[in-house]
Amino acid sequence: MAQAEFDQLRSRYASTLVDLGTGDGAWPRRFARDYGNVLAIGVDPDRSALQDAAKLAERKPARGGAPNALYVAASAESLPAELQGAADWITIYFPWAALLRMILAGEQQIADILNTLAAPRARLSIVLNAEAAPDGFKKPEPSAVRKSLHVPLESMGFRIAKSEWLDAAAAPPTTWGGRLVKGSGRAMVGLDASR
Ligand SMILES: C[S@@+](CC[C@H](N)C(=O)[O-])C[C@H]1O[C@@H](n2cnc3c(N)ncnc32)[C@H](O)[C@@H]1O
């Protein structure tokens, strides 16, 4: 999609959600169905999962489709220029691999990515699985996640509002959120920030 076409599409909606590491893309489609005035974009390098997601979104609304859901096959590290400054709300739910490592290490790269993607005023929601960690990292805890991301996010104008334990009842409505073990009081770490 060319920049002008994308800008025109975006101008038809009140705001834009970008879900980084969207996996099967169920969450942006669900959100798009609930909020017809939002353009909901799922981003993931797994092209085949997104092709299935796009087919579901293309269905008629009565059959679960959402004309305002869009999918972009890309990694967070190589986002298309069209998405620059587009996101009013960025969600990152249950990331793994490089996306998770950047967050846990508090790398400047994740703040640069978010800064490129975010509109001047934007909200950021990150939820991490607290029961697993990549090699070389400790399992996420709220204070450690806040500490890692505080400086890089602040350098891009984001202020962290909270970083806290979430229990299963507060899981975001994504496919991985639904898979988390019920009953654990320390299943997830949720971080909210805005600028
Ligand atoms: C556990 S799945 C979570 C999917 C979805 N957010 C959910 O909650 O159901 C983690 C996703 O992160 C994606 N991911 C990993 N590294 C990434 C990167 N560098 N950029 C974008 N997505 C990435 C993977 O492709 C995978 O789909």
Describe the structure in your own words.
By secondary structure, the protein is α/β, with parallel strands linked by helices. It has a single domain, classed as Rossmann fold (3-Layer(aba) Sandwich), CATH 3.40.50. 34% of the residues lie in helices and 27% in strands. The chain is built from 7 helices and 7 strands, in the order αβαβαββααβαβαβ. A 7-stranded mixed β-sheet has the order 3-2-1-4-5-7-6, with helices on both faces. Strand 2, helix 3 and strand 3 form a beta-alpha-beta unit. Helix 5 crosses helix 6. The longest helix is centred in the C-terminal third of the chain and has 14 residues. The model has no long low-confidence stretch (mean pLDDT 95). The structure holds S-adenosylmethionine (SAM). S-adenosylmethionine binds next to helix 4 and helix 7.
Strand content: 25-35%
Helical segment count: 7
Question: SSE string, helix = H, strand = E?
Answer: HEHEHEEHHEHEHE
**Any guess at the CATH architecture?**
3-Layer(aba) Sandwich
Overall outline: globular
The whole-angstrom Rg is: 16 Å
Which fold does the CATH topology refer to? Rossmann fold
The kinds of small molecule bound in this structure are: S-adenosylmethionine
Q: What strand order characterises the main sheet?
A: 3-2-1-4-5-7-6
Could you give the distance between the termini? 28 Å
Structural class: alpha/beta
Mean pLDDT: 95
- The CATH homologous superfamily is called Vaccinia Virus protein VP39
Q: What is the total number of structural domains?
A: 1
Task: Output the CATH class name.
Answer: Alpha Beta
Number of strands: 7
